[in-house]
């Protein structure tokens, strides 16, 4: 596992900042163990230093993954979050969206969220902010970007898009081979 370069670290933190805001410090400054981001085969992993030391005993070509995959770098070297980091995003997210039960399946099939499926939204959510999507039972379903502000959602028509889909837990089935 290689440490991230300065440019890679900047891209990862900028993307996480979009979703976590000031809560990002809770990801880095943890009380239990020191956690780090590491790069392996263009994928960014988040793990404790203790786990990193154990993983260094394994040959790099034999190691599939270690820790939680937070995202990957595309061929054009842009960072993209993957669904595997949803547990951390859901716990620390700054802006959240809850969908009605009739909108869950649509979202899990990879569709954007329309106003008719919106149950509620965190107050003062700005446009284009990173949001985590939850079911009515507070189960994290995925994440995306707010297409409208909170106030803009109130005045939007029922078929207007309010959240752009970026990733959902249905990807575990649809893209099973690409996640590892």
TrEMBL record:
Main subcellular location of this protein, as a coarse class: nucleus
Domain PUA: start-end pairs: 95-170
GO cellular-component term (any): nucleolus
Alphabetized PANTHER family for the sequence: CYCLIN-DEPENDENT KINASES REGULATORY SUBUNIT/60S RIBOSOME SUBUNIT BIOGENESIS PROTEIN NIP7
Biological process according to GO: ribosome assembly
Location(s), subcellular: Nucleus, Nucleolus
Family matches, as SMART domains: PUA
GO MF annotation terms: RNA binding
Top-level taxon in the UniProt lineage: Eukaryota
Keywords of the record: Nucleus, Ribosome biogenesis, RNA-binding
Protein name: PUA domain-containing protein
Similarity field: Belongs to the NIP7 family.
Key word Lipid biosynthesis present: no
Keyword Amino-acid biosynthesis included in the entry's annotation: no
Species for this entry: Oxyrrhis marina (Dinoflagellate)
């Amino acid at each position: 596992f290689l440490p991230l370069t300065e440019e890679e670290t900047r891209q990862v933190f900028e993307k996480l900042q979009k979703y976590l805001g000031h809560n990002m410090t809770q990801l880095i400054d943890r009380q239990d163990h020191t956690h780090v981001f590491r790069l392996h085969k263009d994928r960014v992993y988040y793990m404790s230093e203790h786990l990193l030391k154990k993983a260094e005993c394994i040959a790099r070509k034999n190691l599939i993954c270690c820790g939680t995959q937070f995202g990957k770098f595309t061929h054009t070297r842009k960072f993209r979050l993957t669904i595997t980091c949803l547990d951390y995003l859901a716990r620390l997210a700054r802006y959240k969206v809850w969908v009605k039960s009739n909108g869950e399946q649509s979202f899990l099939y990879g569709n954007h969220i329309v106003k008719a499926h919106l149950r509620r939204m965190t107050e003062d959510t700005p446009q284009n902010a990173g949001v985590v999507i939850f079911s009515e039972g507070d189960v994290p379903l995925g994440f995306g970007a707010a297409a409208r502000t909170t106030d803009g959602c109130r005045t939007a028509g029922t078929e207007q898009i309010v959240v752009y889909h970026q990733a959902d837990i249905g990807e575990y089935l649809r893209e099973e081979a690409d996640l590892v």
